[in-house]
Amino acid sequence: MKINKPKSYESLDLPCLRGCMGDWTYYNVLIPFKELKRIDNNHIIKESKSLDNSLQRDLSERKYKIKDYLLNENQRYFNSIIVGVYGEMPDWFALDLREIANNFNLNIKNRVQESLGILSLSGGEVLFTIDGQHRIAGIKLALNENKDRFINDELSVVLVAHKDDEKGRVRTRRLFATINREAVKPSQNDLAIIDEIYAYNVIARDLYAKYKPFDNKIALTSNTNLDRDNHTDFTNLLSLVAVNKKVLKLVKSHKQSKYNGPNIKERIELFKTAKEFWDFMILNVREYEYYFSGKKKLNEFRNSEEGKPMNLLFTPIGQKFIAEIYTYFYKKDKLGLLSKRINKLDFELYNGNYKHLFFNPNKNTMVINNQTTAKNLTLYLLGESVDEINLKEDLCKVYGINVLSQEYKSFKLPSKF
After folding, report:
1. Are 83 and 158 in contact (CB under 8 A)?
2. Based on CB atoms within 10 Å of each CB, which residue in 21, 52, 81, 152 is the most buried?
3. Measured distance CA(240)–CA(271) in Å, rounded
4. How far apart, in Å, are the Cα atoms of 313 and each of 202, 215, 274, 302?
5. Whole-prediction pTM value?
6. pLDDT in tens, 261-280
7. In sequence order, what are the residues at sequence separation of 6 or more whose Cβ sits closer than 8 angstroms to the Cβ of residue 221?
8. Residues in contact with 343: Cβ distance below 8 Å, sequence separation at least 6, in sequence order
C-alpha cells in the first residue's frame, strides 16, 4: 500500500538531553507549543487503520478538557510526552563543555559530555505520538483559540527512533503498552494530601492539621476503608474528604473550579463550615461526646470480632451518612430539632435502627447499597415527611420480606420519635 508523503516543515534546532535506558536511546527536547503542529496525532502515514498497525487511540472529550485547562490555568504544566520519529532522522550535536570545565574547575565525565547537546530537525522527519495524544490534541485546540497566550510555552518531548516495518511497529507498540501498563496513578489518599484545587481535599487537610479534637486521631490510608480493629484512629483522611463533599456544598459563596483552588477568604469560610459540622456532632451526639471527652474508647464502638460493639458513627460510611442528615436539616433551618432528637437514633449495628441497612450481622460485614433507604428511614424517625409506602417497600426488600407475603401485609413502620 502506498504511504502518504509526510508534510515538510522548516528546520528546527532544539535543546536536548540524550540518554539510554534498556535498549532504547532517547532524546529529551523542549519544543515550543507553536511547533507541535509537526507531530502527527492521526497517523495518516500508516499503511492501515487496523488494530495491528495503528497506534492511535480514540481522542475522546478529554482533549476538550485539556484545552479548557490550558486556556484557564496560569499554573499549567504537563509531564513529558513520548514521540516516535522515523523517515529522515534528526542530527545530534554534542556540546563542547571543555571551556566550561576549565573556567569552573569541573570534572566533566564523557557521559555528561555526550548527554548535552542540540537536536536538529530538518523538517522532513515523521513524528507521531506514542504517549500523549490527548495532550497534543488539547494543545492544538488551545492554540487555535488563543495562540498568543502560549507564545512562551514549551513542552518536554521524549523522542525515540521508530522503524516503520512490522518488527518496528511491534517494538513501538510494546513501549506504548509498557508505559500505560506500568503508570501508577496517585492513590486517593495521595490526592487528598497534595491537591490544591478541590476544596474537599484542601479542607480535609486543614481539619487534619488544625482541628484540635482530631489531634493524632486521623489515619492516612490508601482508600476509604478503615480497619475495624483500629482502636487508635477515629477515622481516616479520606472519610474527612467524603464528609466535606456533603458539608461544603452548604457554602454558597464558593463555586468549585476545575482550575483554581479556594482563595484565602474562601478557605477560611469553608473550614469554618466543616468545623461547625464536627462541633455540632461532638456536642450533640452522645457517642461522639463520650469518645472525644475520653469517657469511652474506640474499642467500645468499633470491632471486627462478631458480637462485639459496632457503631455506625465510627465507620467511614456512617460518618458520610450522618453528614448527609446534617446537611438536610441545615438547609431546612432545623438543626435545633436535629440536636434534640438525634440521640433517639440507635446507631448500634447489631440491634439498632440500621441493622441490615448498613450491616449484615449474619456475615459480620458492612453493607453499602442501602443508603437512600437509610436516609429516608432516618428522616421518617426524626419526624420529617417521606413517602411511607415506598419506605415500607424498600425496608421489606432490605429485610428480605416478599411483597406478596402475609408478613409484608402485617409489616408496620417503626414509631416516629
Report:
1. yes
2. 81
3. 12
4. 23, 18, 17, 9
5. 0.74
6. 899 999 999 999 999 999 99
7. 189, 236, 237, 238
8. 284, 285, 286
